[in-house]
Each structure stands twice: as structure tokens, then as C-alpha cells.
Amino acid sequence: MPIGYLLRRVLIFLLVVWAAASVNFVIPRLARGDPIQAQFAQLESLGIRSEGMDKVVAAYRAKLGLDRPLWEQYLSYLQNSFTFHFGPSITYFPTDVGDQIVHRLPWTIGLLTVSVVLSFLVGNLLGALLGWPRSSSYVRWLVPILMPLSAIPYYLLGLILIFLLAFTIKAFPLGEAYTPGLTIGWSWEFVASVIYHAILPALSIVLSSIGFWMLGMRGMMVTNMGEDYMVFAEAKGLRPGRIFLHYAMRNAMLPQFTGLALAFGHIISGAVLVEVIFNYPGMGWILWNAIRNSDYFLIQGIVFVLVLSLAVAVLLVDLSYPLVDPRIGYGRK
What we know:
With 333 residues, the chain is mainly α. The protein has a domain at 106-285: MetI-like fold (Orthogonal Bundle), CATH 1.10.3720.10. Helices cover 72% and strands 0% of the residues. The chain contains 13 helices and no strands. Helix 9 (228-235) runs antiparallel to helix 10 (240-266).
């Protein structure tokens, strides 16, 4: 790999992360109101009153650095972001933002990774079969079943699944990540409970995204049918199964591979509304709480990790393209 090409890509990566981090700093501060004042207002609404409220708010603002000029907050934010020290969370004070992210991240990664991989594998296989002329006619019956599901938002599909399978049939729990009262650990009882509780949220994501993978793969398969290498493979008398896997499906996978990498980059953010609906303790759940409570530090920490994961995913895809498809070169000739 040419060094100049690698340096250019890394420089673009750093610029994207800096620009996104700057936007991430500005947008939460455009909201009206003071986050510290809002937290104490919630306490007052619950009947908890404190004497000298203004002095307490001012003390917390000073402790969190919110009384400093905006440019000082920005420089401090950049330094903290690139060292992954985001400061204390306003919502979960005095817990550090990094601790909240570390504790919630495994739940989101586990749920979203399984959902994305399942929808990717099943959707691409079905899409390839739909675009393959020798496929059985029964495969085409999947289109009117799966494609309408892709038009339903995953959170709405989650509500439908809750009503049908959790509320009406009572085959699955209504929410939570595991049965309350269990000790968190690697015991079979706890692992089985986690899998059981994750079925409905994972199913809502898989059913709503499988149609997009299927449609994209079908389009690429149809495009590849008239290519010279396909005609040549058939003229050589190769078996249909080998042509399907090694010629048609392999060459149709490159755009899907890009989509998979970007989908993995989105995993860190979590499926916000799905986690809220199912009361799932992942990144989406704390991001929703942070936005609701104007928690600058928690929003900045989560979004920065999301931006970084997306930028790394795009960089890895860019650098690995020539390894996936040798026809793609690193530089211009």
C-alpha cells in the first residue's frame, strides 16, 4: 500500500472526526435552558426542596465547567474527547460518562451485532436467490412477505411484536435485558435469560432490515447476470452452484460489504427507540435519557464514540477494498 495514499486517508479520517466532534459540541448548547437548573427543577417537582437553590446551581456549574467562556469549554471538550475523559454525567452524577458508556456498550454491541449479522446473511442469501434465474418459484413468495416489513419502522414493528407475542400470547417478556433478581455473570441461567429477553428487540430489527439487504442483493445479482465472466463461466460448463456462489454472488457482495461496514459503525449508537420501547439498558437508552435531560457531557461522549466508530468503519472499508476486489487499486495510474 502506498504511504501517500495511507496518509491522505488518515488525514481525512482525522478531519472528519474533528468536524463531527465540533458539531457535537455546538448542537446540545443550542437548546434552551440550563441542564443543572433542569435537574434541580425535577427534584423540586418531586417535593425535594433545597435552600439557596441559586448557590447550589452555581456551585455545580462551576464544578462541571459550565460557567467558563464557550471557547474554553470547546478547547477542554476537544482535549477530553481525544483522551476519552468526558467528565461526569449530569443525569447520573457523580458517575463518569466513560463508566456509563463502558457499562452500557456490551448490551448494545451484543444485541445489534447479532441482529445485523442475521439480517445481512439471510437478506443477502434470499436476495441472491431472487436474482438467480434457476431459483425455485417458491422463493419469490418471500417478496410480498418480507418487503412490506422493511417499510415498517423497527420501533413500530417492536410495538407490534410486544402486543402480539408479549402482551397477547405472553410468549416473551415485555422488556428489560434479563429477569430481575438474577446475578449478573456468566452462569447458564443468566445467559439464557439475556438471550430470551433479547429475542423480541432483535427480531424487530431483523425483520425491518432484511428486506433492504434482500432488495439490494437482488439488484446486484440481476446486474451481474449479463457480465462477460458469467457468460464465460457458463460456456466452460461449470456447475450452476459454483457459478452462483463464486461468480454471481461473490461479485455482487462488494456494495453489500460496504453497507455491512457502515451498519457495524452504527452499532455503537444502538437502536435508540427499540431500546426505549423494550427498556433495554444499552447506549440508545442512556442517549435518550441524556437528550431528555440536556446532559451535555453524556451526549458528547456517546456521539463522539459513534462518530469515531463510523469513521473507523469507513477507513477500514476504504483500505480493505483492494483486498476484497483485486480490480480496485490504491492509486491512480
